[in-house]
Amino acid sequence: MSSKTVDIPKAQDGDVLYDIEEKVFPDIKAEAGQKAFIFIHTVPFEGSVALVNLKTATRLVRKGFEVHIVLYGPGVLLASRTRGFPSVGTEGFPGNLAVNEQLKTLMKEGASIYACRFAMGALYGFREDDLMDGVKAFSPLDVLDSALTAWKEGAFQLNTWTV
Q1: Which of 17, 88, 135, 158 has the fewest CB within 10 Å, making it most exposed?
Q2: Which pLDDT score is estimated for 1?
Q3: In sequence order, what DSSP letters do the residues of 33-99 get, joined into one string?
Q4: DSSP per-residue letters across 105-153
Q5: Dihedral pair phi/psi, residue 21, rounded to 5°
Q6: Is the pLDDT score of 18 beyond 80?
């Protein structure tokens, strides 16, 4: 075993370790009428992908895109109005309600959010009344038609598929 040969100062709280000023790509803003569709088929809390995509959707709204978020499969569980522990709306652990808060932010800023009725009922026994206020339930036939709508309208699309 060799001895330590390099001695550098340890990072301290507040130290900036990265170039936060340089931006490599242009800051694209939406042109009038441009849309973005975010398709999410992922299990809540099984990874960060759902929250990251909701944060990305929020950036798209703020860049001027008309944003549509399509929750299907396990993604419908993201829009649960009954999340919390030991009571609804109470964080069971830090970040427990981060998804719900991000969905509220998106809706407040103008995004449309949809949840598939088939996934809610057939897969999870999850009622429409269990959806957060403002989330629109849709027919399972709309999963494909929402994707075709995005394609037909030339919208930006972000698709997340995990199981």
Answers
A1: 17
A2: 66
A3: T-EEEEEEE--TTSSSHHHHHHHHHHHHHHTT-EEEEEE-GGGGGGGBTT--SSSTTS-SSTTTTHH
A4: HHHHTT-EEEEEHHIIIIIT---GGGBPTTEEEE-THHHHHHHHHHHHT
A5: -90, -35
A6: yes
Cα separation, 37 vs 142, in Å, equals 13
What Å distances lie between residue 74 and 6, 53, 88, 136, CA to CA?
49, 15, 20, 16
> Looking at domain 35-161, which of 3.40.50.1970, 3.40.50.300, 3.40.1260.10, 3.40.50.720 is its CATH number?
3.40.1260.10
pTM for this prediction: 0.89
Is the torsion defined by CA of 73, 97, 54, 49 positive or negative?
negative
Report d(CA 145, CA 21) in Å as an integer: 41
CA proximity to 139, closest of 121, 159, 162, 112: 121
Q: How far apart are CA 146 and CA 16, in angstroms?
A: 43
Residues contacting residue 30 through CB under 8 Å, at least 6 positions apart = 36, 60, 63, 64, 65, 66
